[in-house]
Amino acid sequence: MNTIDNENLLWQVTQFIWHEAAILDAKEYDAWLDLWQPEGLYIIPIEDVDDYAAVLNLCYDDDKMRRDRIKRFQDGFSISSAPPAVTVRTLSRFVIDALDGNTVVVSCAEHLVEDKFGRQRIWAANVRYTLTSTDTGFRLQEKVVRLLNSDGVLNSFSYLF
Amino acid sequence: MNQLIDVKNIALEPDQLVHNDKIATPMYTSSELFEQEQEKIFHKTWVWVAHASEIPDKGSFKLSKVGREPVIVVRDRKNNIHVMVNRCRHRAATVCEVHKGKTSSFQCPYHGWGYGLDGSLRALPNPEQYGDDFDKSQHGMLKLRVESYQGMIFATFNEGIESLEDFLGAAKKWIDLFMKQGGGYPVKTLGEHQFSVPMNWKVQLENTTDAYHFPIVHKSFLQSLDEEAEKTFTFLDGEGFVEDLGNGHSVMVMIPELVDLEEDLDRKIPERFAELAQALRGEGYPEDQVRRIVRAVGGSGFNLNLFPNVACSMAFFRVLTPVAVDKTDIRHIAIGMEGGPDIANRVRLRLHEHFQGPMGFGSPDDAEVWERIQRGVEGGAELPILVNRGIEKEVPGEAGPRGHVSDETGMRAAYAMWKRMMQE
């Protein structure tokens, strides 16, 4: 348990989220896995619901699925990930939604541009982070990425949001 | 078989484009041909538009496509299903842009013409300017003929076409088998993944009946399974087969022991479903029902490919929409048990997410190779695209020629139908 210091909180979470964004653009996935609490959930929903487990999502990853997904990216047998699209992303418009003990909930906007075969695609999402403060810094407790048009026609993704 | 095709001098004649063992490159690249296909195939045959569970109640509707044409699929107050072109009869604006929902009527946003759930024109503002002989009954929305089989709703612009059941023919038996995934409950849809791929629609049509690619393209998916499941999905050396079912339909049996999900229920429950089985027992389900539900959750061991736009693919519906000669939209619709145990439907959802959709462990690799095809046909236009695998070894099946599970028998079936329709 590590109670969060209210002071500079916005700056602290911003630093963490930008760090995560840099890791994901660099595809340093082992480092990304280390950012997670083991019980954490990485969710890219289709619908706007309370209980994501009860509906179909684009991804609903617990620890095992996250590790399997990263292994798939890294092993070189997945043609869509060998090589994957290159990405550049920014996250901004941070708002602290809640603060309770060692847990902080932050919402923000994400813009991502991917490039593959010389063709670029642009994606935008509202992202909600639930971060747990630990002795070694923040850890991801939950990350929910709500893509614009998540219930419409998308393209396949060879990277993470 | 390796003869080149003189693409510069062939007209877009079906018999020059489609041979029994190969097709010509313009099949994937010709915009002119694509336009002809819309007219001669998608406008003329039965096209899948929805599953009945997607419009469960009176007034439920969803938007769909017949070829490129936007349609509304709706259930009226008497439970009749209507499919109509999403276009106001006045000045052509779409009357609905909500993907799915419930309503009592459709109203055009431009001048307020209002239509009933059956597409009939009910009311319009200031009708007096149209004069006394304006006949509302002649200005209903353009309706399609609609028939369904086992909850699968099809529509057609062709009033003269055979019945849906005749069109499905030998495929009906396989649809019946597929619906055993209800595990004793009605099958219902549980949501869908949608993604667009820069490829011709026929590349998708072929893929559902292509087992040959599975161990290559989906190696990373296979590697993410436990040993027992990986063995189940390693089916190229098994007893599976592909059979031509007539009218362009075909079935590809990959896992023969999972053709009839209600057979031999005493077989050992796979390790990956042990936890679910235990949870169902904990909820008080008797052992025979536990086994039936668990078997259903794992999905069927075959892909049924229905010409031209839908497949019952192992554990989901796979729907294609042709958008342009080099663009196709794909929908992977998850299915589950209506009124069945929630824990079992949740396992189905997680299994669907595992393989399917934009972030699945399977679909993105499919999408990659499909796009590679569309990129590849930019070169070597005279080279044939081979669909000859196993052609010498086919044997008569129950309904038509049958080949090894990895053979291209199903593609040949689809292309024979394509040729027949394009020549009519």
Distance between the termini of chain A: 28 Å
The largest beta-sheet of chain B arranges its strands as 12-18-17-16-15-14-13-21-20
Tally of extended strands of chain A? 6
Rounded to the nearest angstrom, the radius of gyration of chain A is: 16 Å
Quaternary organization: heterodimer
Average pLDDT over all residues of chain A = 95
Structural class of chain A: alpha+beta
Principal-axis shape of chain B equals: globular
Look at the structure and give the mean pLDDT of chain B: 96
Strand content of chain B: 15-25%
Order of helices and strands of chain A: HHEEHEEEE
Number of distinct helices of chain B: 14
Question: Could you describe the 3D structure shown?
Answer:
The complex is a heterodimer of chains A (161) and B (424). With 161 residues, chain A is α+β, with helices and mostly antiparallel strands. Chain A has helices at 9-26, 29-33, 63-75, and strands at residues 36-45, 57-61, 86-100, 103-116, 119-134, 137-147. In chain A, strands 2-1-6-5-4-3 form a 6-stranded mixed β-sheet. The two termini of chain A are 28 Å apart. The model of chain A has no long low-confidence stretch (mean pLDDT 95). Chain B has 424 residues and is α+β, with helices and mostly antiparallel strands. Chain B has helices at residues 14-17, 26-29, 31-42, 164-168, 171-178, 201-207, 214-217, 219-223, 227-232, 274-282, 287-297, 342-355, 363-376, 409-423; strands at 22-23, 47-51, 60-66, 69-75, 81-85, 100-102, 106-107, 114-115, 121-123, 145-149, 152-156, 187-197, 241-246, 249-253, 302-306, 310-313, 316-324, 327-337, 385-386, 395-396, 401-404. A 9-stranded antiparallel β-sheet of chain B has the order 12-18-17-16-15-14-13-21-20, with helices on both faces. In chain B, α10 (274-282) crosses α11. Chain B starts with 13 loop residues before the first helix and ends with a helix. In chain B, 49% of the residues are buried. The chains are: A alpha+beta (161), B alpha+beta (424). Chain A binds chain B through residues 44, 46-47, 53-60, 65, 68-69, 71-72, 75, 77-81, 117, 151-158, and chain B through 99, 190-197, 217, 219-221, 223-224, 329, 334, 342, 346, 349-350, 352-354, 357-359, 361, 363-365, 367-369, 371, 375.
